[in-house]
Design a protein that fits this description.
By secondary structure, the protein is an alpha/beta fold. The protein has a single domain, classed as TIM Barrel (Alpha-Beta Barrel). An eight-stranded parallel beta sheet has the order 7-6-5-4-3-2-9-8. Strand 3, helix 4 and strand 4 form a beta-alpha-beta unit. Helix 8 runs parallel beside helix 10 and helix 14 packs antiparallel against helix 17. The longest helix is centred in the first third of the chain and has 17 residues.
């Protein structure tokens, strides 16, 4: 696997100053967490899961979640379990080098154990499990980690057995974390259990749909999640307790759930200028018609607030997330100039347009260089419009 692997060698040399690094299921977890990008959800009752996974992988998807929770009806759970397990086993029987990182979103620890048994040798193509409504109340979180450790031991995956490790991605969306009077305690308990099982956690996800539902809210495609103030406050608190550089957690951006072409109420948010300069009026129009200008705005705000990657529910969202995750040439030169320079001091940036402070910007530089490993570095003349145009062909 590699981000932008479909771009030809000649074009890649023009678009990129530095290409993304190759990825595999056995890559270092810190690189995998940074490289998740647009994590595409697939309902577990979909009849063509195996074919869909391979198709989306060929289109550039690096991470997918096969969902047994809210995306399927309660009456479909039993069918979805056997359906997902059959798809995983089928994928394991074919070529595996180009498969995306695959996760199963489960409802309970018992279902997690059951899916491991059903998948059998197919576990070899899984990267782990996604845990919804994650909270450390009455042993809820511990039960999932206990189930994971049991699977690791029984199937010889990681831990004391050595070798590849299955990991968990918890989704922070529980009601106790939303409500102001219980949020601080709930987040503190989550931090404790995640730290206690740090090697088992790949990345932390935010469930904005459930957070919004606690107040009976749903944002339109003209608004970002940061415009919904009660939800934005929760995200800020999550970043406050889990986004500290010393913890080195990747926190993913919340889902963008719009993809239709319904009539707009508010003016599009996508500036005209960069598309005019790149002679890409048609691309701008396509993005607006697909409702993706709001997604672009939200991704920018995700990154400004310390989030990396995003949960998505439609394939058209994947290239947008990935194009906007590429490190710009200017960012990269700044990060290289700062990283490792812990003696302090300040100097003009390589682009001579800002001040780089060596100590305060150290953590930013390290995160930026890791993102450069995952998504690559744009060439000096490459803009996000160029990357979007390439990604959306």
């Amino acid at each position: 696997m590699r981000h932008f692997r479909s771009v030809g060698e000649t074009e890649a040399s023009e678009l990129f100053h530095r290409l993304p690094q190759p990825l595999s299921i056995d890559s270092p977890p810190e690189l995998l967490a940074a490289a998740l990008g647009a994590t595409l959800y697939c309902p577990g009752d979909r009849p063509t899961i195996a074919a869909d996974v391979r198709k989306q992988a060929a289109r550039g998807c690096i991470s997918m979640v096969l969902c047994l929770e809210d995306s399927i009806a309660d009456s479909s759970v039993e069918f979805a379990e056997t359906n997902v397990a059959a798809a995983v086993r089928a994928l394991a029987e074919g070529p595996v080098d180009d498969l995306p990182l695959l996760f199963i979103r489960v409802r309970t620890p018992e279902q997690m154990l059951r899916m491991a048994e059903l998948c059998g040798d197919g576990l070899d193509v899984l990267s782990g499990f996604v845990i919804p409504k994650f909270a450390n109340e009455e042993g809820y979180a511990d039960a999932f980690f206990d189930a994971l450790h049991r699977i690791q031991a029984e199937f010889g995956l990681g831990g004391a057995a050595g070798g590849r490790r299955l990991r968990i991605m918890p989704i922070l969306e529980s009601p106790s974390m939303v409500h102001a009077e219980t949020r601080s305690g709930a987040l503190s308990a989550i931090v404790d259990v995640i730290h206690a099982n740090r090697d088992d956690v790949l990345a932390v996800r935010i469930g904005a749909t459930d957070l919004s539902s606690a107040f009976g809210l749903r944002r339109s495609r003209d608004l970002t999640v940061y415009d919904v103030k009660v939800v934005a406050a929760v995200i800020a608190d999550i970043v406050n307790v889990l986004g500290r550089p010393c913890d080195d957690f990747v926190i993913s951006g919340p889902v963008w759930e719009h993809y239709d072409t319904s009539e707009r109420i508010l003016r599009p948010q996508l500036r005209l200028t960069p598309f005019v300069e790149a002679n890409e009026h048609e691309l701008r129009q396509r993005l607006m018609l697909a409702g993706l200008d709001g997604l672009i705005r939200e991704i920018s705000l995700d990154q400004a607030n310390g989030l990396l990657g995003k949960t998505v529910i439609h394939p058209t969202h994947v290239p947008v997330v990935h194009a906007l995750s590429v490190v710009s040439h200017e960012e990269y030169l700044d990060a290289v100039a700062i990283a490792g320079n812990v003696g302090g001091g300040a100097s003009a940036s390589p682009y001579r347009n800002k001040m780089n402070e060596m100590k305060p910007h150290q953590a930013w530089a390290e995160k930026t260089l890791r993102r450069a490993d995952a998504f690559g570095v744009a060439a000096e003349a490459t803009t996000f419009v160029d990357l979007l145009e390439t990604s959306m062909r």
